[in-house]
Amino acid sequence: MFLRRLLKTPQISSSVGRIRTFSGSLNATPSTPSSPALKRKLFANLKSCENPCDDVLRDMEEQGFQITAADLTRWANLLKKQGREEKSSQINSFMSWKCCVMMSQSVLRLAVGRSTFRRVAETLIPSVVNIYAPNDDLYGSGILFGEGDKIITCGHVVRNLHKFRTSPVYRSKTIEVEITLNCGQTFRGVVADCDPEYDLALVKIETPTRELLSPAKFGVSKDVSVGDTVLSIRNPLSYAKSFSAGKISCVEHTKIGSQGNCQFYLQTDCALKEGNSGGPVVNLDGQVIGVIWAFGDREVGVGFAIPIDTVVKVMEERNW
């Protein structure tokens, strides 16, 4: 509401229409007069020019020629002392206009950022579920996909991977889990398959209510670049509806798998904690680009996600 009221104020709304004109000076290479002689010449031109000072200064801004606020204030005061009240008022008018434009640009960037985060969160949160595996007292998050009755998550969220690798009896067990949707509805699920090499698992919801399910959309992780803004949506410490924003720090963090193969992970500075595993990392288009895999125990802002391209490859190979 505050942003809407601010954007509707006369000063802000009138300057919004001038942003296109003013943006030319922002994108141009600025040239600020530094020598006293050049400053005196500019001041003399402003005094003698028939056109209003604010129009002249705007033209200079469009050409990438910028005057410091300190010089403008000093010139306005000098003109006022010399009895040139109208010229002084025109310079003050230009400074007020410039402040309004800069403020409106900041407000618009803030408004767009918030609305984008809100849109992505509202779209993806229904696709993220809470998973609890009572047999091993494990919990984490998962992502609905396909028709919504399947969930992709990390293997260590639903299985003790050490037992899975070493115990044929444990590996043959049917593992049941509790699945809680964003709306609070709880379902029974079963771990249909697990790939310990990539630490991924497929969970199927038994007797799902399809109108409550909202499958996520997968993106392409090979298009991700360092510095991209992302959101992580997850179930930290069993609290639902939680997400955080961050950047991609590295696109090829490597790890050697148990079979000797080299695996790549996305690294992000999103705030990740216990219970995050299995949740999505999404881009600003609301597409899943990774599955949260791990976070640094002692390092804040160090988290890792399995790239969605790797996830899709495993899903296709194992017919998930």
From TrEMBL:
GO biological process terms on file: proteolysis
| One Pfam family linked to the record | Trypsin_2
Highest rank taxon of the organism: Eukaryota
Q: What is this protein called?
A: Serine protease
Q: Which InterPro entries does this chain map to?
A: Peptidase_S1_PA (IPR009003), Peptidase_S1C (IPR001940)
Q: Which GO terms describe its molecular function?
A: serine-type endopeptidase activity
| Similarity comment: family membership | Belongs to the peptidase S1C family.
Record organism = Brassica carinata (Ethiopian mustard)
